[in-house]
Amino acid sequence: MSLRMRIALGSVLVGLGVLALKYLAYVMTGSIALYSDALESIVNVASSVAALVAVWFASKPADSNHPYGHDKAEYFAAVLVGVMIVLAALSIFEAAWRGYTAPVPADYTWQGLAVNGLAGVINAVWAFVLVSFGRRNGSPALAADGRHLFTDVATSAAVLVGVALVWFTGWQQFDAVLAGLVGLNVLWSGWVLMKESVSGLMDEAASADVQERLRSLISEHGEGAIEAHDLRTRLAGKLTFVDFHLVVPGDMTVLAAHDICDRIEQAIGKAMPGARVTIHVEPEHKAKHSGIVVL
After folding, report:
1. Which residues have a Cβ under 8 Å from the Cβ of 43 and sit 6 or more positions away?
2. Can the keyword Membrane be found in this entry's annotation (predicted)?
């Protein structure tokens, strides 16, 4: 089993453990805010399962039906996680409204709050692991799962602050108000996540910094060519697809042009291990005199 698969499986197990702790905290206190916190943890488990399936599917090698690989499967999982976050937020709003219109006194025992705090600490540590690993290894599904857990950590922290306010003010309905605020934060997080994931599905280009780095590499290692133009990039999970036109002298042999392409591809591959480069060679009369000038 690959490290990425083990990380994804670990998310499922951690999610189940945190869910059990948070639901126990809700049972011990009867707090609507803690109930909202536990409800979000159900989504954590479901999103972790979705990420596990996506990582497994994305790890499959390219085949005749998917010659560019299966990495985009992770974006579908990230979109699904975003949808589930939004659904969790709506459920939290419903519970908060019921708690506000018909408040039920909560029993904020230190044991219940300690259990909820422990769940928050576990989530914070694991969220950091997921986001760091996801960014380092180009896994949008695991990074999305980690960002979602960070919203859960914020939820737990807000709940503890809210509990202190309820205790100081004696206003029981603030418990429901706090749950509603948590729901707004969760809703916003889901929207941002879905927006980022859809960008990946729509073949969003690499960042400006990455494109500038590509231009420099082509210019530095394209000795013998005249220019390069129509540089295009797109992201697919951990992969970055790069294609451009390389203009060479009209009397250059195929072998010489091929050597230049190999040199450029090797330079890009060394600087960007996840790059997949396609170069279209053209004769000099195709030069646009507006692309990358080869040094």
Report:
1. 84, 85, 87, 88, 148
2. yes
CB 85 within 8 A of CB 43: yes
- For residue 162, CA distances in Å to 91, 100, 157, 214 come to 19, 14, 9, 50
Sequence-distant (6+) residues with CB within 8 A of 199 are none
Give the span between the Cα atoms of 248 and 225, in whole angstroms: 4
32-77: per-residue pLDDT in tens?
777 777 877 777 777 777 777 766 776 677 777 777 666 666 677 7
Last residue of a domain, which of 201, 222, 238?
A: 201
pLDDT for 253 equals 93
What is the rounded distance in angstroms from the CA atom of residue 173 to the CA atom of residue 102? 9
Q: Which two tokens stand for residue 56?
A: 């497994």
C-beta of residue 264 within 8 angstroms of C-beta of residue 231 = no
Assign 240 to helix, strand or coil. Answer: strand
For residue 292, the model assigns a pLDDT of: 65
- Residue 295: pLDDT over 60: no
What SS3 state is found at 195?
helix
**Helix 3-29 × helix 140-169 angle, to 10°:** 20
Helices 140-169, 32-58: axis angle to 10 degrees equals: 170
In the prediction, which pLDDT does 1 show?
A: 65
Structure tokens at 280: 């279209």
Using the structure block, give the residue that is written with the tokens 């230190």: 110
Residue 247 φ/ψ, nearest 5 degrees? -95, 130
Into how many domains does the chain fold?
2
Please tell me whether residues 121 and 254 are part of one structural domain: no
Residue range of the domain that includes 171: 3-201
How many beta carbons lie within 10 A of that of residue 107, not counting itself?
A: 9
**Residue that the structure tokens 């609507």 belong to:** 32
Task: Indicate the residue type of 270.
Answer: K
